[in-house]
Amino acid sequence: MKFYRKSSEEVMEILDVSIDGLSEQEVQKRRLEHGYNKLDEAKGDTPIKVFMDQFKDFLVIMLILAAIISAALGKYESTIVVIFVVVLNAILGTVQHIKANNSINSLKALSSPVSKVLRDKMKKEIPSNELVVGDIIFFDAGDYISADARVIEAHSFQVNESSLTGESESVTKEIEAISQDDVSIGDMKNMVFSGSYVTYGRGVAVVTDIGMKTEIGKIASMLENAKARKTPLQETLDNFGKNLSIAILIISGIIFIIDILRDKAIIDSFMFAVALAVAAIPEALSSIVTIVLAFGTQKMSKSNAIVKKLNAVESLGSISVICSDKTGTLTQNKMKVQKLWVDNNIVDSDEATDQSLINKLIQFSVLCNDAIVSGDSNIGDPTEIALVNLGNEHNINEQVTRNAHPRIFELPFDSDRKMMSTVNAYENSNLMITKGAVDTIINKTHKILTSNGVEILNDEVKAKIKHDNNSLAKNGLRVLAFAYKEYKNESRPKLEDEDELIFMGMIAMMDPPRPESKKAVADCILAGIKPVMITGDHKITAIAIAKQIGIIKDETEALEGHEIEKLTDDELYNIVENISVYARVSPEHKIRIVRAWQKKSMVVAMTGDGVNDAPALKQADVGVAMGITGTEVSKEAASMVLTDDNFATIVKAISSGRSIYVNIKNSIKFLLSGNAAGIFSVIFASVAGLAAPFAPVHLLFINLLTDSLPAIAIGLEPHDESIMKEKPRKRTDSIINKEFIKQVSTKGALIALVTMIAYYIGFSSGSHLVGSTMAFATLCLSRLFHSLNCRSKASVFKIGVLSNIYVILSIIVGSLMLLFVMNYPPLMTMFEVSKLDISQHLSVIGLSLIPLVAVQIYKLIKDNNSTSHEQIDKVNHLSDVA
Ligand code: ATP
């Protein structure tokens, strides 16, 4: 159906919908017929496919090959064990993959787009996939268009359709029918299409097609799931893992050759070399990162921060500057009018009597206003809601007033112009009513309405207005100016028409800081993060609020948008560190501020809510959108969405980002030090000319039991508050540095040492089999205990032994399985272990505890030293202050 050729009335008739919208009953009926409004996505991998993928690894193939050869040689036991271990490993891998994917998908669902529709006469917000053909949808600047629809109302309605047409210029939409046939999408001026977004103005449209029937659905008949990109951390670890694997393969190859030279059977030597490589190569590195990130972000979503891109978590951990909007993020966004200014006087809002000038000002503030207040549900911008509330307090009801003076045209608000206008029918003529920032409006007025009528606005009165505006702003009030003029044109007004206005007065409202902002700002400063306020509001208002919450000390730290304009990028770069408040800023200034900080090698978080904020959100290292007040476009561009619009949530998210990074580092430390212990033991035995301390099945069992489960458990360590007392991590700091390698190798060597002692004790008291059983059990158990060492920099006694129950569980499960393998006769034969007596069992336990005890004692001593240093620092600091 060519809806663009029909008039809007015809379209409504064809789609069988009235101006009241569809009824919920009708919606259900249409949904049954056409389904949900979504595009077919390529199906994710099935569990079977994920399971099969686990066998693609080169080493696993080698292992299976060795097992088959073993079977051919009649050694069925080791074949069974290898197959058992490989399958169990694959099952574990599959479960982890599916769990991580599920939590990433549920995060995606949390940030899915919404649409505003009219149903049963009520305007409401619904998830966009619930739209049906015939729904009436409303659009404002910054909204995504989620279905194809015929425009039935347009007010400076401009849409960016680049995803469909490739044309980056916005298209102005109209409502008139198009008479030509076969019009291209770009020329269908009375249609809007799914996949595009509103850049300016307001519009209403009726849905004509949904899901795969939309134009975008036709182009992308099958949307490929964008392949998940690896995070920088995963890439670093992948590269490191590759280099390490090569080294381990070389070591395994050398051991294979030595074994053969020592007349060991080829298949046994091969099996051992492969098992050693499997046990020593940390194949789980990158998947551990995904799992810890996925679980970490799930937890963050419960504290109101929805992370949309996993790599944002890494950047969050190293944020050194937060550029935050003021209104709604640092403040409560609960505006309440406090003062009015008319006829050269400031009056308190509750003392404002029913003077005609005051009444007229309030009436105009309700007309040049899009907010709707009905009972508890307020729709619209809090600034405008405050004005409607003011009207109600003065018996100027918004519905009655708007019905009496219907709106004919409008020039919508945008944060670049910092004002808006409407044209309303008013006492036999049409009036243009304009409201906006005082400094903008005053330049567009030449007269003023006073109790003596309309007078010329001379410089003296202008100066008085500016002075009064400043004194209101000094108290942290947001001040709006109102002006009007008779509008004689028949046609839609242009931006140039907002001129030669008559000044009416000002309305000042309070938006108090959020109670938690002050502490969050202090936390930032303690954590070495610079908080910066960027606001469209007046400089003096911004400074007043910034002082209350501790962002600014001195007024010289504030800069205005027009001052930024005069600066070159280099000049801005030179002063950026000294500025804490930017006022009267337009969205394009934001991107310059982000770049200036980034040039200083700072990692920047930037908040934004409007459609024009999208470029700055993309440029920032972490773009943060507002879940409640933000536009759909800003949410799409951001890498994190705050469901409570709260600055304090960003600070909490940074703390989580830092903790998640530390947890990942600790998991990897655990994995690598355990693997190092295994390989050190084998190399030592080989160099010392001893028989191999482990059978291949031992290595496989250790790999299965002590690898990923405790590593994931360490990754789930509760977040440590004290992490916000440290400076941010530099972006260039690699996770794998000298200190990391030193720690991994010393811990690995310590575990290898106790393992070799166990081997020696067993070997000298009995046989090689007893020796290797004791070595196997000690390596296994000490690695499990070592997981407690890897939980934190601090000692477990300080952080609480039981505070991470997952680690305790993984130790218990691992120990029980080991006990079972060592004492249940059928498994004993399979796993090539001999029965140990009590004293040997006790030796194994005692030796396995040594790395734990030694590291804990070391940490306790270090903790004590650093606390006494801290105390000395404090005393010094106090004496400095004194
Ligand atoms: P922030 O950038 O911290 O969110 P903000 O809400 O003040 O602050 P904008 O929404 O860009 O930023 O508003 C900029 C200025 O435009 C305001 O200070 C006010 O003077 C004016 N203004 C805000 N809302 C409206 C509106 N609905 N109609 C007319 N003028 C407005």
Automatic annotation (TrEMBL):
Signal peptide: none annotated. Keywords: ATP-binding, Calcium, Calcium transport, Cell membrane, Ion transport, Membrane, Metal-binding, Nucleotide-binding, Translocase, Transmembrane, Transmembrane helix, Transport. It is found in: Cell membrane. It is a multi-pass membrane protein. Its EC number is 7.2.2.10. The keyword Transmembrane helix applies. The keyword Ion transport applies. The chain crosses the membrane at residues 58-74, 80-98, 240-258, 270-295, 670-692, 740-761, 797-822, 842-861. Coiled coil: none annotated. InterPro entries: ATPase_P-typ_cation-transptr_C, ATPase_P-typ_cation-transptr_N, ATPase_P-typ_cyto_dom_N, ATPase_P-typ_P_site, ATPase_P-typ_TM_dom_sf, ATPase_P-typ_transduc_dom_A_sf, ATPase_P-type_domA, HAD-like_sf. It catalyses: Ca(2+)(in) + ATP + H2O = Ca(2+)(out) + ADP + phosphate + H(+). GO terms for molecular function: ATP binding; ATP hydrolysis activity; metal ion binding; P-type calcium transporter activity. Gene3D superfamilies: Calcium-transporting ATPase, cytoplasmic domain N, Calcium-transporting ATPase, cytoplasmic transduction domain A, Calcium-transporting ATPase, transmembrane domain, HAD superfamily/HAD-like. Residues 2-75 form the Cation-transporting P-type ATPase N-terminal domain. GO terms for biological process: export from cell. Its main location: membrane. One of its GO terms (cellular component) is plasma membrane. PANTHER family: CALCIUM-TRANSPORTING ATPASE (PTHR42861). Belongs to the cation transport ATPase (P-type) (TC 3.A.3) family. Type IIA subfamily. This is P-type Ca(2+) transporter. It comes from Acetoanaerobium sticklandii (strain ATCC 12662 / DSM 519 / JCM 1433 / CCUG 9281 / NCIMB 10654 / HF).
